[in-house]
Amino acid sequence: MTVITRPKAKPAEVIKDASMTKQKEMMSRHYDRLSDAPERGEKVAATFVPGNLNELLMCFDFVNNLPEVNAIQNGLRKTSGNFVMEAEKLGHSEDVCTYVKSDIGMMAKGNIGPNGRKLPDPDVLLLSYTGCFTFMKWFELLRQQYNCETIMLQTPYLADGKITKEMIRYMVKQLEQDVIPKLEKVSGVKFDIDRLREYLRKSAKAEDDLVWVLQSAKTKPSPIDAYFGGIYYIGPIFGAFRGTDDAIDYYRFLREEVEERIAEGKGPVTPDGDMGKERYRLVVEGPPNYTHFRQFWKMFYDEGAVVVASSYTKVGGCYDFGFRHDPANPLESLAEYCLNVYTNRNLPMRVDMLENYVNEYEADGLLINSIKSCNSFSAGQLLIMREVEKRTGKPAAFIETDLVDPRYFSAANIKNRLESYFQMIEQKRAGLRGAA
Amino acid sequence: MLDMPKSPTAGIVQRCEDLFADLTFESARVWKAARPGRKVVGYMPYYAPREIIHAAGALPLGILGGGDQLEVIHGDAYYQSYICRIPRSTIELGVSGRLDFVDGMLFPSICDVIRNLSGMWKLMFPKQEARYVDLPQNFEEDVGGEFYRSELNEIREWLARITGKPVTDEAVRASIALFNENRALVREAYALRAKEPWNVPSSELYLLLRAGLVLPVEDHSQLMRDYLASVREQRRAIKDNCRVVLSGVFCEQPPLNLIKSIELSGCYIVDDDFMLVTRWEKSDVAIDGDPIANLAHAFIADSVSTSPKYEPDQAKKGLYLVDSVRGNRAEGVIFAMPSFCDPALLERPMLQSVLKAHGVPQIAFKYAENSGQMQPIREQAGTFADSIKLWSGA
Fold it and tell me: What's the pLDDT at A8?
């Protein structure tokens, strides 16, 4: 049999709105700053997105390096798969977190960052142990590699659904007695609490605009996609920009852009341009897949599905229930920030939150993207699905992918499930119309 | 096998095996029914402050999943295929009514799966009290120690709500004394096994420890004393086995057959991390003074090292395993770890590199609590034993 092969069509240029372009520029600038840090005499602190204490690190002039973000960037650039396999060759189990393995594989291959330049070794590892057990082992693994100062900051879990004064006290004590003295020692910079207050004041400003943008999805049609688009929006504030003027500018710019879209009655911008008619409004629980990000998103917008709220955009800070960084109580505020992040909330809190999202954002249902290698998110999601479905009366669906391991993205299966889910929503609507 | 003389420990071991096999927890049910108002508080691996449960007048009951005899039907509906097995079999125990007599459940901070299970339990079994035990990863007395004291006091109040009466300092002190005695007996059994592993098979010691998770501590201490007295009377044949430390078995349990298979393949297990709660504190917990502060101090300053704990000092990372090898004159380490177990599997490369630096041979394999095929395990462990005997410098 003759097989005719045709050259693959070049993918169409990704269409971005101005804020996305601006965000990309900021991230590129940050990666260049990281690569240049040794030459410029700047010190580097590696830390995590949930429990990211960027304002505190800036008080000591550290440049913030987030290994999770590196893994995401490698996923988007389709290099993470080889890094994951490299780590597995080195003896890391196929069962564990692929962020960790992407990071370790990247190190083994020369630690070349997403900007194509070498990332510097960290001077300090700030192990902000918030909402994820893996973080602790991840930085123990990195400490073995880098042999640098490693600072543990433990965030108690909100197991009973509330923040207690004992939790705050424990965290503030760690900050005062361990974290700050060690950061002073590594950086050679004395801690200035007024400098921290100023950064926190800036954080709160940007947080106000971020919340406004995320809540704009209550509008019909939603002017944003709060999951796929949301990932662009959270980048600066979850990363190295919280507490900076850049973040204030970015979120003001983003807000104005979204205001304009609402005024024009427009839906979100997708990689293929403005989204067509909004047909389905979804709440999504769980992180996305990054290795096939565009393909994954396309499965939604091709069907007119827009994500109006997501839990993933709360993983680096949960602001929509009123929390803002507070310059009047700087250390307590940092503690409260860490305690509030999404994966530090117990299962009943997560269910309540998702139920509220479905109701408040007038969504058609809940979709869970369960991540193979993230137990913090994934363990319990099938119960979450049942509970939210039961409480809201809206249909829920479950798909499985991985963060940055391309081996666990089965496009046909996911598309098939999504199409079935959209049909289910249609049937539910038809049933409701019939009943009325 | 029929012509083998009956071992003096056989009756004790049989009793332990019966307790181990009973997935309805009949002995705990009988204990509870014996006096009106008695309460039972379950706890999951790897550590729980059993002294306070006991001081509240309740029975601490270790819940270690369903093993290889429980058919998991409902539990699988709550978990994806890439989550370990212990939470699904624990859910099965709950949904099937096997834990309907349990008044409260404690979920220690061992990993995200058990952490999330604490919230699932609140949603699924609202009539049963469920509490997460947030263990400190900061080991400074006035930081992590202070936090843990507040956590223990909250547990004390939680137990008082369950039992309807306060848990006094005096009662906690008395319970600490009883658990000190129990831990000393467990340590004695471990020391004896390391000295004469042919006389204290690990499959027996394992069952003895499991019995300690379902019996009242007073009864278990007597059981341990009886076993130790009996085992000293017996002389089993010494085999040409190599001596190994078993690591990674601190949460989801391997099938009993897996332990037996390792022994049958030519290995004496001379140390392990089974049920660390039975010997968590390395020496006696102080009795005088504030008992809650004493328990917290023991946790912070005198507890065993294991994968779910943070090691603040890189220079000490993994040395506990090297110390175990040296202290117990072991010739190698077998890493047996549950599939999808984050604490064990993330830790393994670090432990392996430390062992390599100290010239300790090692092998690794994974299991699930319901693993059925033991032949590959036996072959792997047997080859490891042979290679140690043939090639080791020892």
Answer: 55
Tens-place pLDDT, residues A406-416? 999 999 999 99
ipTM of the complex: 0.95
> Which chain B residue lies closest to A167 (C-alpha atoms)?
B147
Q: What pLDDT shows up at residue A79?
A: 95
Instruction: Give just the sign of the alpha carbon dihedral A387, A388, A393, A396.
Output: negative
pLDDT digits over A251-295, tens only? 999 999 999 999 999 999 999 999 999 999 999 999 999 999 999
| A144/B87 Cβ within 8 A | no
Phi, psi for A152 (deg, rounded to 5): -95, 130
Q: How far apart are CA B277 and CA A291, in angstroms?
A: 42
Instruction: Give the model's pLDDT for residue B8.
Output: 80
Q: Which parts of chain B sit beneath pLDDT 50?
A: 1-3, 394
Rounded Cα distance between A163 and B136, Å, is: 16
Tell me the nearest-neighbour CA distance from B349 into chain A, angstroms. 6
Residues 324-353 of A with CB under 8 A from B: 346-351
- Measure the CA–CA gap between B83 and B80, rounded to whole angstroms: 6
Contacts 24+ apart (CB under 8 A), B180-183: B180/B284, B180/B285, B180/B287, B181/B221, B182/B212, B182/B217, B182/B220, B182/B221, B182/B224, B182/B278, B183/B278, B183/B279, B183/B280, B183/B281, B183/B284
Q: Report whether B19 contacts B27 (CB < 8 A).
A: yes
Best mutation target among B115, B125, B153, B345 (most A Cβ atoms within 10 Å) is: B115
- Please indicate whether, in this complex, the C-beta atoms of B347 and A174 are within 8 angstroms of each other: no
Bridge-partner residues for A165, per DSSP? Answer: none
**A137: closest chain B residue by CA:** B346
* Radius of gyration, alpha carbons of chain B: 20
Could you tell me how many CB contacts below 8 A there are between chain A and chain B? 157
Q: Measuring CA to CA, how many Å separate B193 from each of A370, B196, B226, B314?
A: 45, 5, 15, 31
Q: Which residue in B30, B16, B58 sits closest to B171, CA to CA?
A: B58
DSSP tag of A312: G
Inspect the interface and report whether the beta carbons of B116 and A375 lie closer than 8 Å: yes
> Cα(A98)–Cα(A79) distance, rounded to whole angstroms?
12
- Nearest Cα neighbor of A122 from A148, A157, A153 is A148
Q: Which of A157, A346, A400 sits opposite B80 (nearest CB)?
A: A400
Query: Mind listing the pLDDT tens digit for each residue in A301-346?
Result: 999 999 999 999 999 999 999 999 999 999 999 999 999 999 999 9
Residue A13 has pLDDT above 90, yes or no: no
> Mean of the pLDDT values across residues A359-373?
97
Is B80 in contact with A174 (Cβ distance < 8 A)?
A: no
d(C-alpha B391, C-alpha B361), whole Å:
10
Nearest by CB to residue A93, choosing from B140, B312, B348, is B348
Of A97, A136, A347, the CB nearest to B116: A347
Whole-prediction pTM value? 0.96
3-class DSSP assignment, residue B194: helix
Q: What angle do CA A356, A360, A362 make, to 5 degrees?
A: 115
Cβ contacts (< 8 Å) between B136 and chain A: which residues? 154
Q: What DSSP string describes B238-293?
A: P---EEEEEES-SSSPPPHHHHHHHHHTTEEEEEE-TTGGGG-BSSPPP-SS-HHH
Instruction: Say whether B311 and A140 touch across the interface (CB within 8 A).
Output: yes
Instruction: Report the DSSP pairing between strands A365-371 and A396-401.
Output: parallel
Q: Please state, in angstroms and rounded to a whole number, the distance separating the CA atoms of residues B339 and A249.
A: 47
Q: Do A93 and B136 lie within an 8 Å CB cutoff?
A: no
**A152 pairs with which residues across the strands?**
A127
CA pair distance A293, A228, nearest whole angstrom = 8
User: Would you call A382 an interface residue with chain B, using a CB distance cutoff of 8 Å?
Assistant: yes
**A83/A227 Cα distance (integer angstroms):** 26
